[in-house]
């Protein structure tokens, strides 16, 4: 049996993803030799996430086993979050527990595979939670291929009980990655603009929550209008625009300490900020005499470099994952369209040529696509195109959809959708890259301008 160490911090225990996933797999040694030999790796279940409308994989996830009666509910809560994460991806269909024939009573129990084939389970997740003498939780899981009769994955984690939801998300990521071959995206957070109050006097506050809507909290008090929050690659800092002191300016905010810092004291408006992939620079728009151009600021030296120089509105810059290029919008051609230029501002090239106006381009973490908002006579649409402008696809459209943001694996987009009417307001939605599995993301109030974090470190 193997373990990993949790990391101490300020009187508590903080689970780091790196430490957790560095733990050695468990379980293979506990299996009978016959089971280990039953079926080649190629026979294991798998999903192709690049295909649209793929049939969800039936997966059984019994409640995890609590080491004591007091931990039984916590164990069930962890397996419940794992099931909810996988179901929300649209790639998995957790089976009704009422259909289960075999009762799992131990975390290390080798299942009776035939019982699970009867209910058409393709995969099975078992696990348990026990309390350690020092108060930490040990959570463990095993992923089984029912038809191959093999364990596919297994890990255990030691952490503070407060981190139980993160453990559940990390387990869901491990299962997603093992079955799809793609990196998961469940152990992530969303920063967004919370909107409350009457429609003509909305209070807008920065808020943050887990990707499934849990653990929400406010980052600002609502004294100033805030827009366009974006994560640093470290996930511990965000950059955003605020209308404090009647002048739109760009600020940095440390999520953990709440410390806020103005990004440069420029004479005109600064807006539409976004971090470079290495987190060392911010690219943003600076307005001067009615024109807006794009600048990059080195956060260490505070030196700014002008990237565009046109008598137009150049805004919404977004770096490619390797930092070598920047996509942005400009009306230099008469209408608002998407352009791509070198990271130093060289060779700006228009890439969008469809009907309507384009905005909010954002480069996929994979580098293969650029997501955007397109406004036309049919309303607002969320779409994607390749960095050379080819292969444009609309994923969803309606009255008002805007502001796409990528999950860190580049397979799912989140955006906000405005519901019309006097009592309407913006809501957060997610959609698969193939255009399927459109789902609302729960928030306490109206919500707009989402930004998806990288996987939490």
UniProtKB/TrEMBL annotation:
Q: Which SUPFAM superfamilies match?
A: TolB, N-terminal domain, Tricorn protease N-terminal domain
Output the Pfam families linked to this UniProt entry.
PD40, TolB_N
Q: What keywords are assigned to this protein?
A: Cell cycle, Cell division, Periplasm, Signal
Gene3D superfamilies noted in UniProt? TolB, C-terminal domain, TolB, N-terminal domain
Q: Where in the cell is it found?
A: Periplasm
Residue limits of the TolB N-terminal domain?
A: 46-152
Q: Which PROSITE patterns match?
A: TAT
Q: Which domain of life is it from?
A: Bacteria
Q: Which InterPro entries match?
A: 6-blade_b-propeller_TolB-like (IPR011042), TAT_signal (IPR006311), Tol-Pal_TolB (IPR014167), TolB_N (IPR007195), WD40 (IPR011659)
Give the multimer and partner information: The Tol-Pal system is composed of five core proteins: the inner membrane proteins TolA, TolQ and TolR, the periplasmic protein TolB and the outer membrane protein Pal. They form a network linking the inner and outer membranes and the peptidoglycan layer.
Role description: Part of the Tol-Pal system, which plays a role in outer membrane invagination during cell division and is important for maintaining outer membrane integrity.
Family named by the database record: Belongs to the TolB family.
Listed name of the protein = Tol-Pal system protein TolB
UniProt gene name:
tolB
């Amino acid at each position: 049996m193997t373990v990993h160490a949790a990391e101490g911090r300020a009187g508590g225990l903080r689970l780091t993803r790196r430490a957790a996933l560095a733990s050695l797999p468990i379980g293979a040694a506990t299996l009978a030799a016959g089971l280990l030999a039953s079926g080649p790796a190629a026979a294991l279940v798998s999903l192709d996430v690049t295909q649209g409308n793929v049939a969800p994989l039936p997966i059984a996830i019994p409640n995890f086993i609590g080491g004591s009666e007091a931990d039984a509910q916590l164990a069930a809560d962890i397996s419940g979050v794992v099931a909810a994460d996988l179901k929300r991806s649209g790639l998995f269909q957790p089976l009704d527990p009422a259909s289960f024939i075999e009762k799992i009573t131990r975390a290390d129990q080798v299942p009776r595979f035939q019982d699970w084939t009867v209910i058409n389970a393709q995969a099975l997740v078992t696990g348990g939670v026990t309390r350690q003498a020092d108060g930490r939780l040990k959570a463990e899981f095993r992923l089984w291929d029912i038809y191959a009769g093999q364990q596919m994955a297994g890990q255990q984690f030691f952490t503070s009980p407060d981190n139980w939801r993160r453990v559940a998300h990390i387990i869901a990521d491990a299962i997603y990655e093992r079955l799809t071959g793609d990196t998961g995206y469940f152990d992530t957070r969303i920063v967004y603009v919370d909107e409350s109050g009457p429609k003509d006097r909305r209070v807008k506050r920065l808020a943050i929550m887990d990707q499934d809507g849990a653990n929400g909290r406010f980052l600002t008090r609502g004294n100033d209008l805030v827009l366009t929050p974006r994560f640093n690659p470290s996930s511990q800092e965000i950059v955003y625009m605020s209308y404090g002191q009647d002048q739109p300016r760009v600020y940095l905010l440390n999520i953990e300490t709440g410390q806020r810092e103005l990004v440069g004291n420029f004479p005109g408006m600064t807006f539409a900020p976004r971090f470079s992939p290495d987190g060392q620079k911010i690219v943003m728009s600076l307005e001067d005499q009615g024109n807006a151009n794009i600048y990059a600021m080195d956060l260490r030296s505070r030196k700014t470099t002008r990237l565009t120089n046109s008598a137009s509105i150049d805004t919404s810059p977004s770096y490619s994952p390797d930092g070598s290029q920047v996509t942005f919008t400009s009306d230099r051609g008469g209408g608002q369209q998407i352009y791509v230029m070198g990271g130093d501002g060289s060779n700006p090239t228009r890439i969008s040529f469809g009907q309507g106006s384009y905005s909010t381009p954002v480069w996929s973490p994979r580098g293969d696509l650029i997501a955007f908002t397109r406004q036309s006579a049919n309303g607002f649409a969320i779409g994607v195109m390749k960095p050379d402008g080819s292969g444009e696809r609309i994923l969803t459209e309606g009255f008002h959809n805007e502001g796409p943001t990528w999950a860190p694996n580049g397979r799912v987009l989140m955006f906000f959708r405005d519901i019309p009417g006097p009592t309407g307001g913006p809501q957060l939605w997610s959609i698969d890259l193939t255009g399927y599995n459109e789902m609302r993301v729960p928030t306490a109030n109206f919500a707009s301008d989402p930004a998806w974090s990288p996987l939490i470190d």
